[in-house]
Each structure stands twice: as C-alpha cells, then as structure tokens.
Amino acid sequence: MSTIAASLTELVRQAAIAAGHEDAPVPLEPVVATNDPRFGDYQSNFAFRLGKALRVNPRGVATDMANHIPAHPMVAKVEVAGPGFINFHLADAWLGDAITERLEDPRFGGPTPGQGKTVVIDYSSPNIAKRMHVGHMRSTIIGNALDRMYRYLGWEVVADNHIGDWGTQFGKLIVAWRNWRNDAAYKEDPIGELQRIYKLFGAKSKEQPELVDEARAETAKLQEGDPENRRLWEEFVSVSMEEFNAVYDRLGVHFDVVLGESHYRDELPALVDGLLEQGIAHPSEGAVVIPFDASEGKGLSKAPLLIRKRDGASLYGTTDLATVRHRANTWTPERMVYVTDVRQQLHFRQVFAAARKMGFENDYRHVWFGMLRFADGSIAATRGTGQSVNLVDVLDEAVRRAREVVDERSAELPEEERAAIAEAVGVGAVKYADLSQNPQSDIIFEWDKILSLQGNTAPYLMYANARACSILRKAGDTPVGPITIGHEAERALAVHLLRFGELVEQAVHTARPNLLADYLYEASSLFSRFYLDCPVLKSDVPADVRSSRLGLVSATAHVMAAGLGLLGIEALERM
Ligand code: ARG
Fold first, then answer.
1. What three-state secondary structure class fits 359?
2. 352 lines ligand 1 (CB under 6 A)
3. 323 CA closest ligand 1 atom index
C-alpha cells in the first residue's frame, strides 16, 4: 500500500501538471507530516520553492496549485498557509476506513519500495579469539534492526557476518597457545583464555623479539596449509563461533551468510596483481597502494589504501575489496550497507572509492555509530584500553534486574512466565537503549533508566502493547471495528498509527532506527491519552462506539507489535 505522504505527493504532482508546471525547475518535494495540528495533518512546501525558483509570488503559485488538487476521499480540506505552503486535512471517514482495512494486514499497510531490490548488510562482524566488544554489540543491534526494516519494506536482504577470522594474529595466538595456555581455564572459558594468552604474547614479545619471528613463521605455515596449525585455527574459530552464536540466539539475530575474511584469503594475491596490471594500484616503497585524488572522497588524496605490505601480506582493506567483488557478482545488489563504529569511516571511504575504480559502482553506505559506556562502571567497556565487554554479561545483568521488577509486580504469574518476561524485557531494554538514540551520538547506559517503566524505554513500550492486548482479551468476542472517528484523541491516534510505514521508510533512508523508536514512544503516549479520554469497555459505551474503539486498540497493538518486532524486541501480550 502506498503511504499517506506518497499519495498526497502524487496529488501535488497532478496539481502541478494541471496548473502548468510540468517542467518545474525544482524537483517535486515529498509531502510531509506537520508537527502542529493547526496546519492540518500534512504539508507540501513544493509551491513555495517553485514560486521562489520562478521568481513569482509563492503564495500565488500555492493558491493556484491548491485549486487544482484533485478531489480524493482521503482529503477533507486543502488550505494555503503562510508564504506558500499547502496544508492537507485528512478526512475522518477515510481515516476510520483506512485503519479498519489495515486491521486485517499484519504489515499494517506498509509500503514496499524495496520490491525487486537487493541490499547486502554487513553487520556484527566480530573477531575470532576475542570477545565481542561494545562496538560489535552496537553493530549487531543496529545492523539487525536495519536488516528487519529493509525486509519490511520489501527489500531482498543478504545479512552477511564478515567475521575477522584470518590474519597475522593467528601466528601469535599459536605461539602463545603452545607456550602459555592453561587447559583448565580454556575449558572453563575458551575465549577468555585465548584473550589472556594473546595479551601475554603482546607483553612478552616486547622483551623477546624472537617471538615475533616465531609468530610470523607460524602464520606462514598456517597460510601454506600446515595441518597442525590449520587444526588449531579451526579450533579457535569453532569455540569463538559457539560463543557468538549463543549471543545471536539470545538476541534473535540470524545471518543469511557468514563469510569471514578467511573466505577470501586465496584470491587476494591475484586481486592485487590484477589491480597493479590495470594501473589502479601502484607500487609504493616496496608495498602496493591504491591512490586517490580529492574528487574521490573526503580526505582521500592524502590517504591511499594499502593493499599489500612490503612483506607481501594482504590487509583488511584488500579483503574488503575481494568482498565487494564477491557480493556484486553473487547478488548484484542495489545497495551495500556496512555497520561499524565511527573509527572506520576513513577505511570505508577508501574501500568504496577503490571499489568504484574497479568498476563496482554501487550505492555504498557506511552506517557508523558512536561509543557506548556504562554509567556506573558495572561493566568494563572502555574502548582503546584493551578492556572488552562481554555482551552476555550485559544481557545477564539486564535480565537479572528486570527479573527483580517482574517478581515484584507480577508475583501472581507462574515462575516460568516471569522468567520469560524478564528475558524479553532485559534483552529488549538493552537493545532499545541503543536503538532509541541517534546512532552517531555516544551513549551512556544507565540501568535504572533503561529498565524504567516510565519514559522512552523498552519496558514502557512493551507495557503499552501488553495493555492493549489485555483490553482486547477482556473484550472477549465483542466485534472489533469498524472504526468511526468521534473524538479528538481517537483522531490523533489514528493519524499517527497510519504513519507507521512512513516512519520505517524514514528510519531506513536515514539509517536511524531511533526515528522508529520515537514514533513508537509517541504512539504509546497517544494511546494512553486515548484510553484516558475514551472509555472502551465501560458499560455505558454504545456498542458501535465500543467496537470502533476496540478497533483502535487493536490497531495500536498491531503497530506496537510490528514496530517492536522491527527493532528486534519481543512484544509480549502479557507482562
Ligand atoms: N571485524 C571488523 C572489526 O571488528 C569489522 C568488520 C566490518 N566489516 C567489513 N566488511 N570490514 O573491526
């Protein structure tokens, strides 16, 4: 279904043509929701801009165009306001019908602009033998929300977990493993022990530089297929993947493919040779680089991409070029999205520019995010100091705290259900704390805040949904709908609910899941106001009004469940 904004934009387009502006010197600007009901529900700024561009009075252009807006059951009134804005007031009857119609649709009438298009989304992408750090946690949560939203909009999504499972760190790890491992500790906590001995290697190799040579030799042996080193590498990969997969299970995250860096290892030497031959890459002081000029991206003229080291080794960026090639050839996607922290901005500018030189034109998007800290230091998460956070610890802590609240508030529920609620609330709260903020800002985790039942939190939204579900349960077999708008609070809720698809589009377009989070928060607040002002189940409510209001309750539950689902948060019907 098309969104209200898209339908109104189409009316403006027709009006522009009818008013003789088919060759307008400015692009047709989409109609947007107003944020002040005095100006109607939606507004078009197109006539204003057009008037400016044509150097005629924009108000006159707007008035003329408004007179040419075709009649449509959606629109009750068209008004010209201010210096040349066109305001649309939606018709109550249409609003009621539109919501009623969407009650049958689990997608709640969402648009599918992605139909026929493919996007590859590269997210999570942790490194073997290391715990996921907070950057991977944010990448996993934000990336998965984008993944779900793209699918909702009809895109074919290839979610690819680009695991860091190849490189010189394995030689070091193998040396450390042979010399210093503690088998009991490894059995207890494999990644913890691997991290410990890897760090130890760092410290010891400062005093014993011969360790570095040894590690280099072990890396080389691994690359040549030495069976013992190969076996160790496989072991490290498998224990790491086991831990990562436990996290993904708990977060409800699934990848379509997991093609780590090792997948591309054999093609890298030839890739670099080929780029040299084509003149895209150049030798530089014994190494190989891809140089750029200023027009190819911000800051790139002084930042060539290093793709082969002097010792012949390939690098992170080399693998990324092979990865782009593989993705382009395998899925011919319209778009490639990468979700990592802020520090990789330059890296991706280089990779995208280099890939373009190689002929892989694409709509590349680096979705980067800021840092995350825990306010009370309960969980060490300082980047850059070598400390890392165990995501499982974060989830456990959140669930433990959620459990305390659930036990207190819902003591009457059976143990098993309380445990399930605490898991959903705890995990949901962690995700929502991340997703409800602009990804590009640094965020601070405060347990009490993110688990609060008040304010813009997962528990508050989940509770609003559960309340809607509980009203529907209590209503028994009272008919739900059709909906007739009869009260201002009903109308405000209806207009907002119908905007759901638009918000998902905006959140995807800007790569900001927080737009959807804000939207759901607003929906919860409008629902509370509606429920306060408009009794549903009270005995003196006429039957048709009750059914109509139940329809709005049901629509709210639809939207909340769909919206929470897109953020990867379980919408419990009871809590
Ligand atoms: N493994 C990398 C890291 O931990 C992230 C990989 C992101 N994806 C990519 N195609 N480079 O920093």
1. coil
2. no
3. 10
**pLDDT tens-digit map of 170-203:** 999 999 999 999 999 999 999 999 999 999 999 9
> What amino acid is encoded at 168 in this protein?
T
Long-range contacts of 173-178 (CB under 8 A, 24+ apart): 173/129, 173/197, 173/198, 173/201, 173/232, 173/236, 174/215, 174/218, 174/222, 174/229, 174/232, 174/233, 175/201, 175/211, 175/214, 175/215, 175/218, 176/200, 176/201, 177/232
- ∠ CA 26-31-37 to the nearest 5 degrees? 135
Q: What is the length of the chain?
A: 575
Closest CA to 468 of 526, 417, 413, 425: 526
Query: Element (H or E) spanning 159, and its range?
Result: strand 156-160
Residue 551: its H or E element = helix 543-566
d(C-alpha 195, C-alpha 200), whole Å: 9
Is 125 near ligand 1, meaning CB less than 6 Å away? yes
Average pLDDT over residues 561-567: 98
Look at strands 363-369 and 335-341 and give their pairing.
parallel
Q: Are 309 and 287 in contact (CB under 8 A)?
A: yes
Helix (H, G, I), strand (E, B) or coil at 121: strand
Q: Tokens 């891809």 — which residue?
A: 290
Best of 120, 124, 125 to mutate for ligand 1, by most ligand atoms within 8 A of CB? 125
Pick from 150, 566, 111: which is nearest to 335 by CA? 150
